[in-house]
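Your task:
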Amino acid sequence: MYQHTTLGTITSSPIPIYFCPSRRTPGQLNTPGTPAAAGTDYIGNGIISAGTAPTSGTVTNGVYTACNQSPTYAGIFRPACAGRINITGIADGASNTIAAGEKRLALAKLNVGTDPVDASSKGYSYGFDGTATNTANSLSYQNAPTNQADFPASATGANGDTYYGSSHTGITQMLWGDGRVAPVRYVGTAVVANSLSMMNILLRINDGTPNPGNY
């Protein structure tokens, strides 16, 4: 796929490792009247600790060079206008910080393409592109993150959200900054240390709080 020069071919080609086999097989998101796009079951850690994530700004050659908001970025993924981060910028340590993980989806809408966070008009190729809906397809930026089970197939009116979750039993698989994959149990937003939730502690690069031993 990397040899293709046609954008539509790239964005509509499923990438097998972007799909969790416990949830679905690799495929396209198809909505009538909308070009097909390949989805993803994962989101990057773009958490902010204060302010509002940018929803528009100055775009130069497809890259945001200026943001219309100035939040405090606390995760690994961020728009170009927020500046770069390297491995030494992860003050808590790469092995203690989540880089990406499975995203919470609505099982009743898998592959349909109408779920805002699994949308056929967006797919895996969208990151910080200027709208909250598009960003939600591949990035989690909320400052009150949770980790919960997928919305069941019986919840026909539900949509996925910009948080973490899975179709596993009790856990979500996470990619950590040191390259390993390890699970985190389902948790909500309850404070566990220094006014932070467990997910906040595991996602923020410089909260300074040791990771709980029971995550």
